[in-house]
Amino acid sequence: MTKELLWNKIPIIQTELNLSKVLRCGQTFRWKNINHEWSFTTQDRIILLKQDDQFIHYSHIMKHDTNGTSSQTLDFLHDYFSLDLKLADLYTSWKTSHKKYEKGISPFDAFQGIRIIRQDPWECLISFICSSNNNVKRISKMCDSLCSEFGTYINEYNDYKYYSFPTAETLAQPDVEAKLRDLGFGYRAKYIHQTAMKFTSPDFPEITIENLNSLRSKDYTEAHEFLLQLTGVGPKVADCICLMSLDKHDIVPIDTHVYQIAVRDFKYKGKKELKTMNKEVYHQIRTFFKEIFGDYAGWAQSVLFAADLGDLNNGTNIIDIKKEISKEKAEPVSRSRKRIKVEA
């Protein structure tokens, strides 16, 4: 039995951080909304969040046989959501820069409270390898599978079992690629396994978790080149990792979707339909957005992306335990939370 939770609160309004937007807009893929509480695991605890108009309420459940404090959870949240940064100031600047391009309601009015989260670089790396030619729902299922199959059991809450994100050492084991293929990861199974092997093999002495984490203090070019050594990491995935885990706030990851936003909404002179994204065009679009939005162009682009994302409120990772239990009683089919099949 889980002891009664102690909830604390952070005074923050939704225009500074809107959990339902930030946690569903394609930055991170493991947060669950279960019975209207957001939940996520680190290596040693389940973190729980709720939000109202004035506060984010937070609590945690520790891994079995471990101890932890609320202050540690608070420190994690401050770092993860970059709460020292005042988002209102950035939005004011972006709205001014965007004004000459406006058609109707500005996305910076319609989608407030979106900030870039500061993820663990290893988890961000593997998650975005999963993102290749994929959508948010399927990426989320893949990340669930990685944790339940290869992570460490943390604890249970509301009849849901939670696991940590697997380490490089675990994903480098010989049987991992085959297991991932059985789970429906397709070609991504090879990418994940080979990348994990690079982080654990003496054949690649410079590719370590320590060096990956140290890229937060390196310049963009060094970080980008390091990431491109890894299997399954191209320019866009590398830029997602730079922006969302390595403190490269001005970096705008570019794909055909972002290219179309530039042409359609920002009068970028290019073809309406782009079949291939070459290196020159990629660099031009990234520079184009930085010239408009400045040092936090990557943050601004995340708002534009969220405004353009058709499935932002599609129910991804929303679970109603009462409905799940009722469904199981009505349909007594054997199901394991430890194995989630994902179609590739």
From TrEMBL:
Its EC number is 4.2.99.18. Keywords: DNA damage, DNA repair, Glycosidase, Hydrolase, Lyase, Multifunctional enzyme, Nucleus. It comes from the Eukaryota. It is found in: Nucleus. One of its GO terms (cellular component) is nucleus. This is N-glycosylase/DNA lyase. One of its GO terms (molecular function) is class I DNA-(apurinic or apyrimidinic site) endonuclease activity. Pfam families: HhH-GPD, OGG_N. It catalyses: 2'-deoxyribonucleotide-(2'-deoxyribose 5'-phosphate)-2'-deoxyribonucleotide-DNA = a 3'-end 2'-deoxyribonucleotide-(2,3-dehydro-2,3-deoxyribose 5'-phosphate)-DNA + a 5'-end 5'-phospho-2'-deoxyribonucleoside-DNA + H(+). It is an enzyme of class 4 (lyase). Its main location: nucleus. One of its GO terms (biological process) is nucleotide-excision repair. Belongs to the type-1 OGG1 family. Coiled coil: none annotated.
